[in-house]
C-alpha cells in the first residue's frame, strides 16, 4: 500500500514493557537524524516493569522541523495485541499495521510481517525489537551500513555473540522491509534534508542538564522519581567531565538541604524532583527563603494527587511551586516550552538564583522531558556565569539592610568576615532575634528583592499578526503543538502568547490581554492554574479555556479543532 506522497510521516511502535520499545526509539531516532531527516519522538508508557502496553511515536520530515505530538498514525508496528487495543482510537483505514497475523485485531490496513518467526530463527523473541528497527529502515530505504553502525553501538557493551545475533536480526528485518518497499506494498515518499546534518538531537531532560552546566552547576542532589530522574542521570553521566558532584540522597528532605549547604559553601547546586517528591522539600524551600540562599529546583510534573499517574504528563504543579513553603518570601518560576528554552532558561536560572538569592524553579513535565527532536546547536555567545559572591571584610553583615533588598553574599573562608546564617529570624549579622521592628525590616527587605526584577524579566514570546482578535495564552510544553495547530488553521486573527516566566508575571502581559477580543487559555491541568494566576495578579479574566488532564499531552489535531471552535 503506497501512501500518498507527504512530507510528514508518523510511525508508532508499540509493545509490552520489556519488549525493547525504548531501545527501538533510542536507536531509530538517531538513525533517522543521521540519515538527514527532521525527527521528533515521544513515548507513553505504563508504570510497570513488565507487561502493560507502551508505545513510542516517531515523526519524520524532510522539509520542516517536527517538534510535537500528533494523533495520526501512518505506520504502526505493534509487537503484541494489547497495543492495538490501546491505540485503536488513533488507527484509521489508511494506517498501515505491520505485524504478525495473530497480533492483528482488525483495526487499520494489515500487512503480515513475521516478526516472531524471524526472531525465533535468530535465537528468541528478545530479537524482535532489532528486527523492528531493520524493518522500518528497510521500508524507508536508509543505508544498511548506517543502520548497522548505530545498532552495533547500542549493543557495544554486550558479548560478541549477542552483537552478531542482533546484526543477523537487523538484516532479516531490513531485507523484509526493503522487499515490501520494492514491491510497493509499503512505500513512503519522504526525502532527506542536508540541512539537518549539523543539528543536534536532544531531549528535554538533556537540554535542562546542559543548561545547568552552562549556568555553572557543580552540585546536584536528588532522590530518583519519574520523570525527573532523567535530569539527575544526565548530570551524573557528565559529572567527571564537568567536575560535578552528583548525589543520590536518601530522600528529598536530605536532597534539598544538601543543595542549600552546597550554595552556602560556594557551589552552585540544584535539585530535580517531581510533585510528590517536591512536597517533602517544602520546608527546605522555606529555609532557603529565610537564609536567603540561592537554589535551583527543577520539577518534572506528572499527574497527581498522591502517586497519580507516575509515568504520564500534566501541568498540575504550578500552584505547588508558587505557594510551597510556610511564610512569605520571593521566588522565580521559569517554564521551558521548546528544547532550546530548556537550555537557556536552566542556564539563566542559576544566575538569577545567585543574583537575587531566592529559589528559582524550572517547571517541565513528563512529555517535555521524554521528547526528542533535532535543533540547531546551542549558541554559547554571551553566556556568562555570575557568581554573586563577594569577598568579606571584618564586620561583614550577611543580611545587611539594603535599598534593593539584596545583601552581599559571602561564603566561608573568602575574606575575613564571619558568614553567619540562621533559620530563625535574625538581625543583619545573622544572630537570632525576636525584636519586632527587626523582624518587620527583614521581611520588607526580602520582599524588595524582586522590585527591580524587570531588567532580568523573561518576556513572553509572541507569534502571529499584531492585529489579532483572538489570543491563545500558554506556558510550558504546550508551545510547539499550539504553534503547529495555528499554522494549520492559518487565521491571521489568531495570535499566540507563550510564557517562559510564569512568575512573576511580566507586566507587558496585560497589554497583550487587553488588546484581544477573546483570550483562549491552553493548559494541561483541570482548573487552569495559570489563568487563575493571571486573574489574581492582573485582574484580567481569561475568556475561554482549553484544558486537558487525562495524563496525555495535547496533540495537534485536537488543538486545531478546539482553538477553531473557541475562536469562532
Count structural domains: 4
Provide the CATH topology of the largest domain.
Pyruvate-ferredoxin Oxidoreductase, domain 3
Strand order of the largest sheet: 6-5-4-1-3-2-14-7
Low-confidence stretches: none
- Tertiary shape: globular
Strand composition percent: 15-25%
Write out the CATH superfamily name of the largest domain. Answer: Pyruvate-ferredoxin oxidoreductase, PFOR, domain III
Gyration radius from CA atoms, angstroms: 26 Å
Mean pLDDT: 95
Number of helices: 20
Q: Return the CATH architecture of the largest domain.
A: 3-Layer(aba) Sandwich
Characterise the protein shown here.
The protein has 568 residues and is α/β, with parallel strands linked by helices. It folds into four domains: 191 residues, Pyruvate-ferredoxin oxidoreductase, PFOR, domain III (Pyruvate-ferredoxin Oxidoreductase, domain 3), CATH 3.40.920; 175 residues, 3-Layer(aba) Sandwich (Rossmann fold), CATH 3.40.50.970; 67 residues, no CATH class; 110 residues, Rossmann fold. It is 37% helix and 19% strand. It is built from 20 helices and 20 strands. Strand 2 and strand 3 form a beta hairpin. Helix 4 packs parallel to helix 6. The longest helix is centred in the N-terminal third of the chain and has 24 residues. The mean pLDDT is 95.
Amino acid at each position: 500500500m503506497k501512501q500518498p506522497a507527504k512530507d510528514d510521516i508518523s510511525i508508532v511502535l508499540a509493545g509490552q514493557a520489556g519488549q525493547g520499545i525504548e531501545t527501538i526509539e533510542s536507536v531509530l531516532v538517531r538513525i533517522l537524524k543521521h540519515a538527514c531527516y527532521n525527527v521528533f519522538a515521544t513515548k507513553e508508557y505504563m508504570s510497570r516493569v513488565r507487561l502493560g502496553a507502551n508505545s513510542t511515536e516517531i515523526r519524520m520530515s524532510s522539509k520542516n522541523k517536527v517538534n510535537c505530538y500528533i494523533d495520526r498514525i501512518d505506520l504502526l508496528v505493534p509487537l503484541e495485541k494489547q497495543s492495538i487495543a490501546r491505540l485503536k482510537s488513533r488507527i484509521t483505514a489508511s494506517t498501515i499495521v505491520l505485524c504478525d497475523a495473530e497480533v492483528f485485531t482488525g483495526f487499520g490496513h494489515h500487512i503480515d510481517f513475521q516478526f516472531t518467526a524471524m526472531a525465533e530463527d535468530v535465537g528468541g523473541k528478545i530479537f524482535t525489537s532489532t528486527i523492528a528497527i531493520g524493518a522500518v529502515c528497510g521500508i524507508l530505504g536508509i543505508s544498511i551500513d548506517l543502520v548497522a553502525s548505530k545498532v552495533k553501538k547500542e549493543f557495544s557493551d554486550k558479548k560478541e555473540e549477542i552483537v552478531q545475533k542482533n546484526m543477523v536480526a537487523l538484516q532479516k528485518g531490513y531485507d523484509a522491509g526493503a522487499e515490501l518497499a520494492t514491491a510497493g506494498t509499503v512505500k513512503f515518499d519522504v526525502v532527506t534534508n542536508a540541512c539537518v546534518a549539523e543539528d543536534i538531537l536532544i531531549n528535554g531532560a538533556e537540554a535542562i542538564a546542559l543548561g545547568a552546566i552552562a549556568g555553572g552547576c557543580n552540585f546536584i542532589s536528588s532522590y530518583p522519581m519519574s520523570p525527573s530522574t532523567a535530569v539527575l542521570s544526565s548530570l551524573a553521566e557528565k559529572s567527571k567531565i564537568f567536575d560535578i558532584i552528583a548525589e543520590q540522597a536518601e530522600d528529598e528532605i536530605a536532597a534539598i538541604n544538601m543543595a542549600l549547604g552546597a550554595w552556602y559553601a560556594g557551589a552552585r547546586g540544584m535539585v530535580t524532583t517531581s510533585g510528590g517528591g517536591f512536597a517533602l522539600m517544602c520546608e527546605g524551600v522555606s529555609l532557603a527563603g529565610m537564609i536567603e540562599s540561592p537554589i535551583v529546583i527543577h520539577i518534572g510534573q506528572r499527574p497527581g494527587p498522591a502517586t497519580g499517574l507516575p509515568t504520564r504528563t500534566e501541568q498540575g504543579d504550578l500552584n505547588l511551586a508558587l505557594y510551597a513553603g510556610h511564610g512569605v518570601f520571593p521566588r522565580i518560576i521559569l517554564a521551558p516550552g521548546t528544547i532550546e528554552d530548556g537550555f537557556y532558561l536552566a542556564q539563566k536560572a542559576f544566575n538569577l538564583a545567585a543574583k537575587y538569592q531566592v529559589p528559582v524553579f524550572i517547571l517541565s513535565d513528563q512529555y517535555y522531558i521524554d521528547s526528542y527532536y533535532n535543533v540547531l546547536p546551542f549558541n554559547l555567545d554571551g553566556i556568562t556565569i555570575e557568581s554573586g559572591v563577594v569577598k568579606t571584610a571584618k564586620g561583614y553583615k550577611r543580611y545587611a539592610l539594603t535599598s534593593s533588598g539584596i545583601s552581599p553574599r559571602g561564603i566561608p573562608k573568602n575574606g575575613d568576615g564571619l558568614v553567619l546564617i540562621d533559620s530563625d529570624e535574625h538581625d543583619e549579622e545573622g544572630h537570632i532575634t525576636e525584636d519586632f521592628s527587626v523582624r518587620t525590616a527583614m521581611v520588607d527587605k526580602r520582599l524588595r528583592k524582586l522590585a527591580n526584577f524587570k531588567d532580568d524579566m523573561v518576556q513572553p514570546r509572541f507569534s502571529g499578526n499584531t492585529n489579532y482578535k483572538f489570543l491563545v495564552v500558554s506556558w510550558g510544553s504546550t508551545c510547539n503543538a499550539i504553534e503547529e495547530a495555528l499554522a494549520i488553521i492559518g487565521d491571521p486573527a489568531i495570535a499566540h502568547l507563550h510564557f517562559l516566566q510564569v512568575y512573576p508575571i511580566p507586566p507587558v502581559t496585560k497589554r497583550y490581554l487587553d488588546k484581544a477580543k477573546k483570550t483562549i487559555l491552553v493548559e494541561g491541568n483541570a482548573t487552569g492554574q495559570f489563568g487563575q494566576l493571571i486573574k489574581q495578579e492582573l485582574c484580567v479574566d481569561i475568556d475561554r479555556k482549553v484544558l486537558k488532564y487525562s495524563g496525555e499531552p495535547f496533540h495537534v489535531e485536537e488543538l486545531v479543532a478546539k482553538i477553531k471552535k473557541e475562536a469562532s
